[in-house]
Predict the structure.
Amino acid sequence: MEKNFKLTREFINQIEDLIEAKDEQGSMALISELHPADIAEIFDELNTDEAKFLYMLLDGEKSADVLIELEEDVRERFLLATPSEIIAKEYINEMDSDDAADIIGDLPEEKQEEILSHIEDIEHVGDIADLLNYDEDTAGGLMGKEYVAVHEDWDVSKSVQEIRRQAEDIDELYYVYVVNKDNYLIGFISLKDLILSDDKQVVKTLSKSDVISVRTETPAEEVAVIMEKYNLVTLPVVDNIGRLLGRITIDDVVDVMREEAEKDYQLISGITSDVESSDKIFQLTKARLPWLLIGLLGGILGAQVISQYESDLAIYPEMAFFIPLIAAMGGNVGIQSSSIIVQSLANNSLGIESTARKLLKELSVGFMNGFICSSILLIYNIFMSDTTALTITVSISLFTVIIFASVFGTLIPLTLNRFKVDPALATGPFITTVNDILGLLLYLMIGRYMYMFFEGVNI
Amino acid sequence: MEKNFKLTREFINQIEDLIEAKDEQGSMALISELHPADIAEIFDELNTDEAKFLYMLLDGEKSADVLIELEEDVRERFLLATPSEIIAKEYINEMDSDDAADIIGDLPEEKQEEILSHIEDIEHVGDIADLLNYDEDTAGGLMGKEYVAVHEDWDVSKSVQEIRRQAEDIDELYYVYVVNKDNYLIGFISLKDLILSDDKQVVKTLSKSDVISVRTETPAEEVAVIMEKYNLVTLPVVDNIGRLLGRITIDDVVDVMREEAEKDYQLISGITSDVESSDKIFQLTKARLPWLLIGLLGGILGAQVISQYESDLAIYPEMAFFIPLIAAMGGNVGIQSSSIIVQSLANNSLGIESTARKLLKELSVGFMNGFICSSILLIYNIFMSDTTALTITVSISLFTVIIFASVFGTLIPLTLNRFKVDPALATGPFITTVNDILGLLLYLMIGRYMYMFFEGVNI
């Protein structure tokens, strides 16, 4: 079967009609064959009551899978409207520990405890409670307890027995970890190698010892970089002294990668939180207003700067012509420089150059771009402008602004990163606005001196 | 072992010294324990001769793995300096077909044929030649031929035998595909289920029939969305009528996701090609100049627009104060609106609203943000500006510009997408510049009428 479910407005209307008619069979006929991720997409479009009706029709395992796939706000609304006992017994029971911890972790503390108290499987509730202790942006917060570990001295046949015992609740199992008697992680075996090996072979001889692992406190971003770099499907997590605690699967890390990329993209596009075009007007407005307000403030400061030169402008109004050009170019160059650093940091390709070397290089790039752009502008103005002072002012200012913004745009994200602040902030509104205003100031200052020099104007 | 190899300038210096001294043992001691991905990082920092020296020390399988991990330009330089026969026998022989096709595909056609002619394994060379036919941005270009398929009527024990036969050359094997006698894909089994099943059980009864597959021509971006949405580790690829042709692994798709995100990020930050801060000055300049030139052109057009209003500015130079504010806000709002659409398209969360509804929503958002921003500016100017005409002009213009840019910023990427053009282009320099200039024009036009009305100025 090729998968090509595509959610449409018609489909939603159809299912809403069935729900209103309380047609359980009809509703189930529509959704029962769908993948949980597709059902979750449908739920995201329904209101809480409609979703609840549909949800009660699903069996335990499927409803747990759908719950995992729901958007956070939809899920939270739904869970808060559902008794803790049902959440515990119908849904959490069926989930991997990491998914369960993620979902419970978003709820109010009281509700969390209520749900945990209703889970009967003591091992499962212990695992979830353990995982709730880790920061969600670390390896501990990403890992699940659903791994299979075998003892280095066992043979293949005993290992398979153990897999049989441990793996019953595990959906996805690709590697088996090898530990010593104190549970220290010492290697791994792929299921493929287990299948292809003789029953009597000892695990130690099959185990690959170059196992890559992280600690619980490793940041999620670093986990993503490691799994991407080394092409891993699962990554074991160990404690400070190397004992195996859990494993991270690639699907969770793909989500981390997506979120990281989105966060950087949102910052550079001036949006403050995770919104989608399908969100509500209020959310969309709220996510966009902060940058606009900073931009507004920047614009007002710019107006203040220009107003200091009002008398100049009254005498040579043509100075105003190039105000947008200078402001825009400063902002553009700054964003370019910052974004290269931000992206290199994000995909771990910053290289081994020192900051001084990077700056020197950036200066050269700024010099070349500045030279080319100012020369073009110079030629344009030689033909188009009557005022030598303006011609010279515009080109010198542009050159200076481009060099300045290049350096500034490189230094800021590197500095932020050194102080463990998200370097992507440098691509946000504040720095851009500062670049705009400084460019403006430079332009008007240089202009005043040039007019004094070339035209003998004295202000 | 915890993995924490971190490349440093010192390490590179050390290895360069060893290479210069032709110290094979010393060099190997430094790198032999490292992961291929780490060795590739080292190679990226060396020149071709140094890399070649080191490369010859690695054994076949490791050198193949390193080759796969190298940056494209470094790899191409290296391969062009290496005899085709060595490439074929030492490296390509050891690679999965998809990696081999990716690497060969980047080379000149003549070199490709030379390499293929030196591969002795007929099946392998056939697989690679097949894969070279697919566009690299499609499922066909991503897939490899290294899958294991079992017949639906076989039992577990025969399947394991078949895995033993087929899986020898396959590093990563997590699922076995189930086909009928005509090679139609009808299901899959996880290795875990195979291990846990009785030897005599028939594959058909174990097989999960809700297998998700794509066709060879499915675009790479869509493959990424599918694997992410359904949390897949491998994805089978079929031909037009459903016959199994190959499989895509998640690590290749992670790379696609990263590239997609980077492409969008580069467009919005005004960079035209894939550069990193460690690239050469010339590359960095070249990647940044195009947007700066478009920005420059925009600035010149802006200057032309303002120059039409030179006489106005001579009379009321305070109009110039708010030129940067209006231009910047138009650009900002446009980018915000476009980027939300671009991101929603990228992660497939555009929802099921019609374009008309989206526009209506965007109008409302623009209305709210425009109202808030213009009101703040109005209050500011009531206290700070002496001229009623300016006060009114600035607020009305800002309001109009925000609404206009919102609509424009939403429509453009949706339109581009409908015509199968990358919607992220809407966040690039062209549209932003158009927004800037239109904002400027609006402002100056409204200003002229307001001054005529309030001050009786006649221009």
Chain B is about 65% helix and 5% strand. The radius of gyration of chain B is 30 Å. Residues 9-137 of chain B form a domain with the MgtE N-terminal fold fold (CATH 1.25.60.10). The longest strand of chain B covers residues 185-190.
